[in-house]
Design goal:
By secondary structure, the protein is an alpha/beta fold. The protein is built from 14 helices and 17 strands. The strands form 4 sheets. Strands 6, 7, 8, 9, 10, 11, 12 and 13 form an 8-stranded antiparallel sheet that branches. Helix 5 (114-128) packs antiparallel against helix 6 and helix 9 crosses helix 10 (293-307). The protein is elongated, with a radius of gyration of 23 Å.
């Protein structure tokens, strides 16, 4: 008799353990025809973990014809969580729908077509019973945008999986969307060959107007709205006092906003594992801090529109070559690309002092194919906010389109943040 392959879910899978888990976990296909997902040893399961195991289990069943069973104790907290979320329903073919679980603070659903997206997003806000139109708007918008990306771009035969959970005691909402598709790098690499790694692809995907469907510089007519989904969702999360995690392949981006309003970023790379062979998005929203959702969405649209403007209208001096004059401070960005601390040091110790004494300063981006918004922020935010690039002479040389896009976004941030120091 053929043995059953057992996948033992780790004991604790909370938000703090996501990086450690992805670094060491293997999502392989067993040779046995029967696979058991064993949750009996698990005492804590975060929404992102529940979604990943749902995707993996259904992928094994659908794509590899495995017979997948769930082993769990219905009397434990994790067991009740699996039942109440709808996880068990995915594997036992019951007819239960999200609406029939009204009153629960969590829901999980498989989305395979565009016609399911809006009804599911609406059902989530009804089920979570938050009774706050601003946060409900943010939830519906974020889920709709994330699931639209899955349905249109993932190339996954089983679609995507979405989960929403509300924590009434803290006012926190967690949204998770994942798929077992082609991943972000493969999707956008045809349009953006500079996306040579998963990390670069994730950062590029979060810039406004960077879509795998439309190329950069396709700004006009209906294409103006291309590539805004991930940018809008990430901005809504961070500006609303929450944060987001975006993982695809061997890279994960984690960005959030502190209580003091400071934007933080902590990327991770998984060189010894496959990370997540698809795309995973985790969005945190804060009921007490989301504010006016319509104003927040308007701000995001304004930022995206400004980042699309002609750079000369923003007084950003993009040049094709480094000036040959003798008295020029040239900063070779490739020497410290993506070192945010060094970028800030160079800005404060070399660039700003040189500008104040009348020197022309050139950020030379030769051989730099892409930069993150965090790195661009460290290089330029203070300079742009205080308009030093207008009063003095700052040039940006050898910028490819993806670098320009990151700089334009930082310029938009700077122009919308008054400098209290003059």
């Amino acid at each position: 008799m053929e043995s059953e392959f057992k996948i033992s879910v780790p004991a604790i899978l909370n938000d703090a353990s996501i990086i450690r888990f992805l670094e060491g976990w293997k999502w392989f296909v067993p040779s046995q025809s029967k696979v058991e997902l064993d949750f009996c040893g698990c005492t804590f399961l975060a929404p992102w973990a529940l979604v990943l195991f749902a995707v993996h289990g259904l992928w094994l069943a659908t794509e590899h014809n495995k017979i997948v069973t769930i082993h769990y104790d219905q009397e434990t907290e994790v067991g009740k969580y699996l039942d109440n979320s709808g996880f068990i329903r995915l594997f036992d073919n019951s007819e239960e729908t999200p609406g029939s679980r009204a009153g629960f603070t969590v829901c999980l659903e498989q989305i395979t077509g565009s016609d399911q997206i809006y009804p599911f997003s609406r059902s989530v806000t009804s089920m979570l019973q938050i009774d706050d139109p601003e946060i409900e708007g943010a939830i519906e918008y974020s889920l709709t945008e994330l699931l639209r990306n899955v349905v249109q771009h993932s190339g996954s035969a089983i679609g995507g999986f979405a989960m929403a959970q509300y924590f009434p005691k803290t006012g926190q909402i967690e949204l998770v969307v994942a798929d077992r598709g082609v991943g972000i790098r493969k999707h956008i690499s045809a349009t953006y060959p500079e996306a040579e790694t998963d990390t670069l692809a994730l950062n590029l995907a979060l810039l406004p107007h960077h879509s795998g469907t439309f190329g950069h510089a396709m700004y006009g007519s209906m294409k103006d709205n291309a590539g805004l989904g991930l940018f809008f969702v990430s901005e809504i999360a961070v500006r609303g006092g929450g944060g987001y995690k975006l993982c695809s392949g061997t890279a994960l981006l984690n960005k959030w906003r502190t209580r003091l309003g400071e934007r933080k970023s902590r990327p991770a790379v998984f060189p010894r594992s496959e990370g997540w062979p698809g795309t995973l998005a985790v969005i945190h929203l804060n009921r007490g801090l989301i504010g006016d959702f319509e104003q927040l969405l308007t701000l995001c649209r304004d930022l995206a529109a400004e980042s699309r403007d002609d750079p000369f209208l923003q007084s950003l001096d993009f040049v094709d070559a480094v000036p040959e004059e003798a008295d020029v401070e040239i900063i070779a960005v490739k020497d410290f690309v993506e070192n945010v601390e060094e970028a800030a040091r160079v800005r404060d110790m070399r660039v700003i002092p040189a500008l104040h004494v009348g020197k022309t300063v050139v950020y030379d981006f030769a051989d730099v194919r892409i930069i993150t918004q965090s790195f661009a922020h460290a290089l330029l935010y203070l300079i742009l906010k205080r308009q030093l690039h207008v009063r003095f002479s700052l040039q940006l040389a050898h910028c490819v389109e993806s670098v320009k896009a990151a700089i334009r976004v930082v310029s938009s941030y700077a122009r919308r943040t008054p400098d209290k120091n003059g």
